[in-house]
UniProtKB/TrEMBL annotation:
GO molecular function: peptidyl-prolyl cis-trans isomerase activity
Signal peptide positions on this chain: 1-25
Upper lineage: Bacteria, Pseudomonadati, Pseudomonadota, Betaproteobacteria, Burkholderiales
UniProt similarity note: Belongs to the PpiC/parvulin rotamase family.
Record's protein name: peptidylprolyl isomerase
Length: 263
């Protein structure tokens, strides 16, 4: 697998930002007297492989070597021209330094306070319980600007017109071409007033009065209804763990802010 230049550059930046080379490392090259340690290549290779963007190979290492040398040449030229002293560059460097340090703090905190499998299972059970008895609806809708326009659509439907044909005139251009199709979704995915308009309908039912939302007036049809299928724990375990990790970090941040003296 060949790594695209843009992705390689991102990997180089990430690796150089997260790994400081040991002073005794063997040099990859010396550019105008400035040494580039071989360990930087190892860091970038590790980053590339971890992200699934390539495999360790002589070709990859050679490409990384060329890029590292080119970056060092450009860096030296940028410093020569005084770019490192520009206020906007200094600000960007300060921001990058802060992000790197804070991210390392966060990683260390989560390593010492990991989300356990028990935490994940408890959150999954809570989620599954909230989904019990919930329904998903396959919906279509026609959006109009005025209430009278929506009433006219309802009258045409009662007269035998096909919903999918009338939907071509919908103000919702994203669904109009597909007969107003909104696909499957739970009521919670919609504004409350929109959800209230269809949750009492049976399969095949159409709202007999316009449903008003901030977007306009809707005529809604329920194509089908089904019970919500809760995915297996293994299917969403990673998502749950990531969500709990972010919650844990947010709580840690809030705790630190509360302890700080902010004037």
């Amino acid at each position: 697998m060949t790594l695209k230049p843009a992705r390689l550059l991102l990997a180089l930046i990430a690796a150089s930002a997260t790994l400081a080379a040991p002073a005794f490392a063997q040099n990859l090259a010396v550019v105008n007297g400035k040494a580039i340690p071989t360990s930087r290549v190892d860091a970038v290779v590790k980053q590339v492989v971890a992200q699934g963007q390539g495999q360790d190979s002589p070709q990859l290492r050679d490409a990384i070597k060329r890029d590292l040398i080119a970056r060092e040449v450009l860096m030296q030229e940028a410093i020569k021209q005084g770019y490192d002293k520009k206020p906007e560059v200094k600000q960007a460097l300060d921001n990058a330094r802060q992000a790197i340090v804070v991210n390392q703090l966060a990683r260390d905190y989560i390593e010492k306070n990991p989300v356990s499998d028990a935490d994940v299972k408890a959150e999954y059970d809570r989620y599954a319980k909230t989904q019990a008895g919930e329904k998903e609806y396959h919906l279509r809708h026609i959006l109009t600007t005025t209430e009278d326009e929506a009433k006219a659509v309802i009258a045409k439907l009662k007269g035998g017109a096909k919903f999918e044909e009338l939907a071509k005139t919908s103000k919702d251009t994203g669904s109009a071409a597909n007969g107003g199709d909104l696909d499957w979704a739970a009521p919670s995915a919609f504004p409350p007033e929109f959800a209230a308009g269809f949750t009492k309908l049976q399969k095949g039912g159409v709202t007999d009065t316009p449903v008003k939302t901030g977007a306009g007036f809707h005529v809604i049809k329920v194509d089908d209804v089904r019970a919500v299928k809760v995915p297996a724990l293994d299917e969403i375990k990673a998502q749950i763990k990531e969500s709990l990790t972010q919650n844990k970090l947010a709580a840690y941040q809030e705790e630190m802010v509360k302890k700080a003296k902010v004037q």
